[in-house]
Design goal:
alpha/beta; single chain; seven-stranded mixed sheet; 395 residues
């Protein structure tokens, strides 16, 4: 069922309430998601993006009940990733010759995924298409936000920016718009989306925001590809992106650890006590990595000024869960964040040295040589951990 967006623009996507992971199992989606597709019915009928492959047949059936598929004049593919383009093969069975407007890289992506030579029309930033009634579609390449093929499409007259993955959230909601959603849930999902997907491209994003601003295009609505549509003060999410892209951090210290026999856990909690003693105003969060969702932890790391990470020594190294998490953080290219390490050991005690090396390689500033404790922490060991926390809080 199509839903009204503005004037002759409608949402024709899919709400996926049951989605729990995305990008395979790499991204947790506790609140589901949406796959937003849009239909513009001016003198020309335009379809912007489709939905994920599992919903392709349902999507085409629903779309055909809203519009004669043969009357679609053109299709815009803002991004070739399968959650946006997955229904294209099913749709193109019915209208195989209809033109698909996309970037040159999107042609490579779509051909590579579906092995079809559809009627592609390559566009670049500034290209325009008149769709009648004095309205135009204007294309803006969004390279590496977050794929090389990404672009956004602007509809003049209605002042709608179809932003694709930028400004989105994995957030299922029966209501279309941001002013109809729970604000806390919305912004929690928006920052999680940015932290886990867009952080590596922050410098590119800052330039793109400046470029879009230089066009002086009025934006009344930002129609994303996932989650709710920003119609109430859409500039608020642009402002958030500007903040998040600028080496973002809050007054927060996050402790992340894994443990074997709870010795490293005791250190983590003692360090937290020390931080609180030294700086009662700082937000302190502690997570046992093996009992926590890694994407939620990445969001906390994104918000933090300092990350303290712990592991016992195992096989002259660290637990593989911690090694994997540091590798995850390295790929996200965090900047402007400090780090320190801690851990228990029985015999050789290499974990802190390994943690320091890995965190440094991941782009964190190592602010202390770290805390090592042999065997389980006794009262003196816990006191030392408290003092370590006090010291880290002031660095």
């Amino acid at each position: 069922m199509k839903k009204y967006v503005k004037n002759n623009v409608y949402w024709v996507g899919k709400v996926d309430w049951e989605l729990k992971t995305f990008h395979g199992d790499d991204y947790s989606t506790h609140k589901g998601s949406t796959y937003n597709s849009y239909l513009i019915q001016e003198e020309k009928t335009v379809l912007i993006d489709t939905v994920w492959l599992p919903f392709a047949k349902e999507y085409v059936k629903n779309l055909s009940s809203e519009v004669d598929l043969r009357k679609i004049d053109l299709i815009i593919a803002n991004h070739g990733e399968v959650d946006h383009s997955g229904a294209l093969p099913e749709l193109m069975k019915h209208i195989p010759d209809k033109p698909i407007y996309c970037t040159a890289n999107a042609v490579k992506s779509l051909k590579g995924q579906y092995h079809k030579d559809w009627n592609f029309h390559i566009v670049k930033t500034g290209d325009k298409i008149s769709i009648g009634n004095g309205k135009e579609l204007i294309f803006v390449e969004m390279t590496m936000l977050h794929w090389p093929d990404s672009m956004a499409t602007y509809l003049s007259g209605d002042n709608i920016l179809f932003s694709n993955d930028a400004f989105g959230q994995h957030f299922a909601n029966e209501k279309l718009f941001n002013d109809q959603a729970d604000r806390c849930d919305l912004f929690n999902e928006a920052i999680k989306y940015y932290a886990n997907i867009l952080t590596p491209f922050s410098s590119t994003l800052k330039k793109k925001l400046a470029e879009i601003s230089s066009f002086n295009l009025p934006i009344d609505i930002i129609a994303t590809s996932h989650g709710v549509i920003w119609r109430d003060n859409p500039s608020q999410i642009i402002e958030k992106y500007a903040q998040w892209s600028d080496d973002y951090r809050e007054n927060q210290i996050t402790i992340v650890y894994d443990t074997m026999w709870n010795g490293t856990k005791i250190l983590a909690e003692s360090i937290a006590h020390g931080i609180e003693k030294a700086d009662p105003k700082v937000t302190i969060k502690i997570y046992n990595l093996s009992k926590s969702d890694e994407n939620d932890l990445i969001t906390e790391v994104f918000k933090s000024k300092t990350v303290i990470i712990g592991s016992p020594t195992v096989s002259n190294s660290i637990l593989h869960s911690v090694a994997g998490f540091i590798h995850f953080m390295k790929g996200l290219k965090f900047k402007g964040k400090k780090a320190a390490a801690f851990g228990c050991y029985g015999w050789s005690g290499e974990s802190v040295k390994t943690l320091n090396e890995m965190m440094s390689s991941a782009g964190f500033e190592i602010i202390d040589e770290g805390l090592k404790n042999q065997w389980n922490p006794d009262n003196n060991g816990q006191k030392t951990a408290v003092e370590f926390g006090e010291k880290i809080a002031l660095l």
